[in-house]
Amino acid sequence: MSPQAATAEAELEKGITLERHVKEEERKFPQARGVFTTLISQISLAAKIINAEVNKAGLVDILGLTGHTNIQGEEVQKLDTYADEVLRRALDHHGSVAALASEEMDDPYIVSGDYLDDGEYVVVYDPLDGSSNIDVNVSIGSIFSILKRKTTNPEATMEDFLQPGTEQVCAGYVIYGSSTMLVYTAGNSVNGFTLDPSVGEFFLSHPNIKIPPRGKIYSINEGNSGKWDEPVARYIAHLKESDKATGRPYSARYIGSLVADFHRNLLKGGIFLYPGDKANPNGKLRLIYECNPMSFIVEQAGGAASNGRHRIMDIVPGELHQRVPFFVGCKEDVADAERFLSEGLGR
Ligand code: AHM
Ligand code: MG
């Protein structure tokens, strides 16, 4: 057994649940006053419900029962819409959450005053990222981020959402894979919890995750190479050259599911890229729902995230659904990519 696997097993034996871990983290940050404990346990409840439905979707698909109606003749809801509703319902009565925004909603959901106490936070999420992969049994995920509100008026406004990633107080993702995991950071290390389906509880399995300074993997949709800008093409060509000192050539690994690609690179080391290109100068991924939470996590694990020129978390969003080129992973790899992009040449 590898030392990492032995540590994971030892932690599982100690039985540190997600809730206990969050509570212990909160003791270090008294200003959080139990808010995160409830918020994260509500998110983990939503994750368990979505997980059950995702597994069922796979089963239904294998049995050839998918379509617009289910076996009872009822309309089948799209899973991403379902996941969106599950997360909203888990968070819209919390008291400290004033508003929610998600990749699936055009506008933010403002929580009714009847359900507000201090309403100090807003939560943003991508309820089911990579959902086109469900049909083929490939891992997908949910991504979330919690921000402290800026405005003090009773109703949250857009200003509360349009904050740079540096203002996040907590971020995480859930991966629905061969096992289901929740990984989160509250700005003090990154920790991963594995769902034990027999008891329906997340247990600490990956304490204090650290990404190595340099990886051996690159993840990009090479099918887009005809549209890449020259510096991106040269950087990818560079990764394929042989060089013992920097461990090149790198291996290509691309699932097409951000959470799964990110999770693998976080644990094994690597760089994930979704650059802007000639057709889509801002790439595909969303700054607020996808890139900021992943950037907070990777930085806490010792890595980096950039739009090719600047740190992702310093970008002040201009709009809720803004897209941004994304380079995320090991610090030295992201620095190399930035060098190629900023010099336009690199070698
Ligand atoms: P989605 O939010 O519509 O699911 O799209 C985001 C997904 C990411 O999970 C993944 O990294 C990317 O799209 C893959 O895009 P492509 O198929 O263009 O490579
Ligand atoms: Mg998405």
What are its keywords?
22% strand, 34% helix, 13 strands, alpha+beta, binds magnesium ion, 347 residues, 8-stranded mixed beta sheet, binds 2,5-anhydro-1,6-di-O-phosphono-D-mannitol
Detailed description of the structure:
The protein has 347 residues and is α+β, with helices and mostly antiparallel strands. It has helices spanning 3-14, 18-28, 35-62, 79-91, 158-161, 230-240, 258-268, 287-300, 331-343; strands at 95-102, 109-110, 116-129, 140-148, 168-176, 180-185, 190-196, 201-206, 217-219, 251-252, 271-274, 304-306, 326-329. The strands form 2 sheets. Strands 2-1-3-4-5-6-7-8 form an 8-stranded mixed beta sheet, sandwiched between helices. Strands 10-9-11-13-12 form a 5-stranded mixed beta sheet, with helices on both faces. Helix 2 (18-28) runs antiparallel to helix 3 (35-62), helix 3 runs antiparallel to helix 4 and helix 6 crosses helix 9.
- Output the number of helix runs: 9
Helix proportion: 25-40%
**Strands of the largest sheet, in order across it?**
2-1-3-4-5-6-7-8
Termini separation comes to 42 Å
Largest sheet features: 8 strands, mixed
* Low-pLDDT segments: 62-68
What is the radius of gyration computed over CA atoms, rounded to a whole number of angstroms? 20 Å
Small-molecule binders: 2,5-anhydro-1,6-di-O-phosphono-D-mannitol, magnesium ion
Dominant shape: globular
Give a count of the beta strands, DSSP E runs of length 2 or more: 13
Chain-averaged pLDDT: 89
Give the DSSP E fraction (strand runs of 2 or more residues): 15-25%
